[in-house]
Amino acid sequence: MNKLTLTEEDLEEIEPLLEDVAARYSCIEDPDLHRRAPVLARRLPAELLAFLEDHRLREPAALCVVSGFDVDETEIGPTPEHWQGSHISSPALRCEIFFLLCASVLGDVFGWATQQDGRIMHDVLPIKGHEHYELGSNSLQHLSWHTEDAFHPCRGDYVALMCLKNPDAVETMVCDAGDLDWSALDVDALFESAFTQMPDNSHLPTNSTSTGDPTIQRLRERSFKTIEAWNANPVERPVLFGDRLDPYMVLDPYHMKTDGWSERSLAAFTGLCDQIESRMKGVALEPGDCAFIDNFRAVHGRAAFQARYDGTDRWLKRLNVTRNLRGSRSWRPAADDRVIY
Quick check: pTM over 0.85? Predict the structure, then answer.
């Protein structure tokens, strides 16, 4: 893990930028803010920009953390009971802006029509009734480790998390591909298009809500039909890609069906999963921490915890970041639209 801690001088430089942006935009979901974010991000401190650019270009680690940003718990208020509507008049707007600008150094932020009503910035928090679901809103069940949106060809290069609250020091679990012993694995088999990746539960219609806009609703219904088709007929893809000596990986074992796999494929996959399990490391994010997980080089999950539902529970913000927004053009209604349908 690479880590940069902001200095007092950094914070003094950042604050006027946040005040300026907050005066122009009242909601983090403003499309104009998303378009301008890469330009606005150039006003961040030089050392912070260099740190994030190094993470993007050199890939020195699968996880980098920017810490030291001040989160005023009195200002942000209680942890919401649900993600619905949490972006409207958000008391955490100052934090959201800083997070968005940092993420925009790495690439373009985007969202999914099938997740959190198409919002770009998501809330990660426990929801009553989801305790044992395989969703980021669960609590009593650990969140199984995975590549974010492993099933989709337009998955992000990075999944980014900003901690607003974590009073119980709940750990985010990460395994870096650089920590694996590839010489002990059947890499050639894992590069074969022999593995089925199913859509994860967060993209299912049951975990979404309807929208009043008929055009958007029609596009979302098309997206859900695609998800259903992929569930019915999973596409066979490789688990590894890139350089065979230092490969990238994409897998989500909880949502993968092994039916019909050859003995070699199953043995290779099991060997990889066993290594990942043995090399998983926990990181307890603190308020103000912004974690950027390389979605090509790492899998991540979360330990179980006991939610209280009293406004004090763990609360993160989440962004998906891509280095190739054009790669999803056929999935988006317009070139500057950030939502994949």
Answer: yes
Q: Phi and psi of 304, rounded to 5°?
A: -75, 155
Q: CA distances (Å), 46 to each of 102, 118, 196, in order?
A: 12, 33, 43
Q: Which residue(s) pair with 161 in the sheet?
A: 291, 318
Q: Distance between CA atoms of 166 and 124, rounded to whole angstroms?
A: 11
* Helix, strand, coil % over all residues of the chain, rounded to 5: 35, 20, 45
Quick check: 223 and 114 in contact, CB under 8 A? yes
* Phi–psi pair at 294, nearest 5 degrees: -70, 110
Nearest to 111 by CA among 56, 82, 153, 154: 154
Q: Is 152 annotated as a binding residue?
A: no
CATH top class, domain 2-176+280-331 = alpha beta
Q: Which of 11, 38, 15 is nearest to 94 (CA)?
A: 15
Would the annotation count 146 as a binding residue? yes
Complete DSSP assignment for 151-191: T-TT--SEEEEEEEE-TT-PPEEEEEGGGS-GGGS-HHHHT
Q: Give tens-digit pLDDT for 173-195.
A: 999 999 999 999 999 999 999 99
Is 241 in contact with 247 (CB distance < 8 Å)? yes
